[in-house]
Amino acid sequence: xxxxxxxxxxxxxxxxxxxxxxxxxxxxxxxxxxxxxxxxxxxxxxxxxxxxxxxxxxxxxxxxxxxxxxxxxxxxxxxxxxxxxxxxxxxxxxxxxxxxxxxxxxxxxxxxxxxxxxxxxxxxxxxxxxxxxxxxxxxxxxxxxxxxxxxxxxxxxxxxxxxxxxxxxxxxxxxxxxxxxxxxxxxxxxxxxxxxxxxxxxxxxxxxxxxxxxxxxxxxxxxxxxxxxxxxxxxxxxxxxxxxxxxxxxxxxxxxxxxxxxxxxxxxxxxxxxxxxxxxxxxxxxxxxxxxxxxxxxxxxxxxxxxxxxxxxxxxxxxxxxxx
Length: 324
Fold this sequence. Notes:
6-stranded mixed β-sheet; 4-stranded mixed β-sheet; RNA Polymerase Alpha Subunit, Chain A, domain 2; single chain; 3 domains; alpha+beta; 7 helices
């Protein structure tokens, strides 16, 4: 065989080195031709096997069946070849919005070709121009699962600039979510938690998105919630005010000791500084009737404009009931 090879080279007057160069050039030319042709755009029918993922109330998150979706597309030769290869491999999981998943019966749902257009890049990949879908309707099965609705409990660590505070509780939207899973697992879940929300030195309102903590072996209807922290600037005012007794029957007299208390109030900025001058502290006779120790809480009568919160010292006073 070797002698035949040498004779062939001699007859062609080609040295072994020249043949190697020729073959290398031939391989390079073929590679350039192949790359050029694979980069050209072609119209062809592409097939993709799809598993649907969707948050449907009362059903599993992922379909138990696969569906072949066929479409006429314009793509490079490389994309066409890869599409044929992928069609015989692992299916593509596509996350559909619940609004496009139409219910047929029981656990059977379907998607119309008109709704598939926005998912073409997920089904066939980027760089593919869709002409039209051959598959008019695609069906998926989502078996039913147990579920229940539970509140969202925000977990947070927040600090404020001096003379700033939260105007109410941290709010999350939505404030409840649906949890899916086996019945015996759902029994032990009465709320879900957010990941830690951290903010420092706040002086203005803040909002954002926070992920929910995953619950093992269970699925949540949403992965994250919107949170809002309203921040207000305040001014502190303090006064020592007399304590007045209210709702006492005409034939009774209720004395309180001490007869005055200090109040520290926070008002929304700006403040005139005189909101507490016309206010008073009171003890309600009805509270005395339900008191076991004979002490009654001291309250601020009415709600001054701009009042955010207040503290009274002492918080309760001793009461002595007498007949008139």
